[in-house]
Automatic annotation (TrEMBL):
It comes from Pseudidiomarina insulisalsae. GO terms for cellular component: cytosol. It holds the Pfam family UPF0149. PANTHER family: UPF0149 PROTEIN YGFB. SUPFAM superfamilies: YgfB-like (SSF101327). Belongs to the UPF0149 family. InterPro entries: YgfB-like, YgfB-like_sf. This is YecA family protein.
Length: 195
C-alpha cells in the first residue's frame, strides 16, 4: 500500500462493499456499515473480541450472527477504519459512492453515513456533557447534516457544498476518535511505517 493513498479506498469501494452485503442479505449499504463502525470506533468502542460484532449484528442484521466471510470482512473494515483514523497523514476517508455517480445518489449515501455514524456513536456515548465544546458542536452539526434534503440541483455550487460536507465529516470523525476512541482502542495500529 502506498503511503499517499487512503487505506479505505485501497481496501473497499462503496459499490463492492454494498454488493457484498447484498449478496449476504444485509440491507445496509457500504456507507451505512462504515458509518456505524466509524461511530463505534471513534467514540471508544473496542474492536477486540466479538462484543462489537454482536452489537453490530443487532444494529444491521436483526441480531442474527454474521456468516464467517461477513465477520471477516467486518473485522477488516473495523481494523482499517481504526488504522486510518490513527493515520498521521489524516488518511481517513468516508466510504461513499465515487465522484462520477449522480449527486443525489452521493448525497443519499452521505446522509446514510452520517445517520449511521450517530447510531454507532450513540451506542457508546450517551452523555455529551463530558465532551469538549468542539466535539459537541461537531455532533450537533452532524445531527443537522443527517437531516439534509437530498433533492438538490446538480450544479457546481451543490457539488462544492457536497465536498465541503464530506471534508467536515471526515475531520469531525477524526476529532471524535482523537478525543474518545484513541485511548479505548489501544490495539489500533496505523498502516504507516515510521522511519
Amino acid at each position: 500500500m502506498s503511503d499517499n493513498t487512503s487505506a479505505s479506498s485501497d481496501l473497499e469501494s462503496y459499490d463492492r462493499l454494498t454488493e457484498f452485503f447484498e449478496r449476504h442479505d444485509l440491507l445496509s449499504s457500504g456507507a451505512e456499515v462504515h458509518g456505524i463502525l466509524t461511530g463505534m470506533v471513534a467514540s471508544g468502542a473496542s474492536i477486540e473480541g466479538d462484543d462489537w460484532l454482536m452489537l453490530l449484528s443487532d444494529l444491521i442484521n436483526e441480531g442474527n450472527s454474521f456468516a464467517p466471510d461477513v465477520r471477516q470482512r467486518l473485522k477488516l473494515i473495523a481494523e482499517n477504519t481504526c488504522a486510518s483514523l490513527l493515520d498521521p497523514d489524516l488518511g481517513f476517508q468516508l466510504i461513499l459512492p465515487s465522484d462520477h455517480e449522480p449527486l443525489p445518489e452521493r448525497l443519499q449515501a452521505l446522509t446514510a453515513w452520517v445517520q449511521s455514524f450517530l447510531v454507532g456513536f450513540g451506542v457508546n456515548q450517551t452523555n455529551l456533557a463530558g465532551l469538549s465544546a468542539d466535539l459537541r458542536e461537531a455532533i450537533d452539526d452532524m445531527v443537522e447534516i443527517a437531516k439534509l434534503d437530498i433533492s438538490v440541483e446538480n450544479d457546481e455550487e451543490a457539488e462544492r457544498a457536497y465536498f465541503e460536507i464530506v471534508e467536515y465529516l471526515r475531520i469531525s470523525a477524526m476529532l471524535c476518535f482523537n478525543e474518545l476512541g484513541q485511548h479505548a482502542n489501544s490495539t489500533c495500529t496505523t498502516n504507516k511505517t515510521l522511519h
